Amino acid sequence: MRKTLSASHTQEPRVINVDKNAAYPPAVDELKAEEQLPKTTEFRQVKYLNNRVEQDHRFIKRLTKPGMGFGSFNTALAFLKRI
Predict the structure, then answer these.
(1) What is the span of the domain harbouring residue 42?
(2) pLDDT on residue 54
(3) Which end of the chain is less packed: N or C, by CB atoms within 10 Å?
(4) CA distances, 38 to each of 5, 24, 45, 73 (Å)
(5) Confidence (pLDDT) at 67
(6) CA neighbours within 13 Å on the CB side: how many for 12?
(7) What is the mean pLDDT of the segment spanning 37-49?
């Protein structure tokens, strides 16, 4: 987060949406204490608020997943017969 906040093209965030990972609250508190993050930044730790970001790469995952292995035993068998 420090790297993102210090980038020249980054504006001060109004809201930060994260999942329920326990590491986020202490990190945000530390950034606010060090004044790298404005005290007025709202921190929302709700499981489903970040869903839009997670869904952004769903299409890519759907394309790459079939190539990660054989879908069934018959597919593996057909592949091995060609070798």
Answers:
(1) 2-82
(2) 64
(3) C
(4) 11, 16, 17, 55
(5) 61
(6) 10
(7) 87
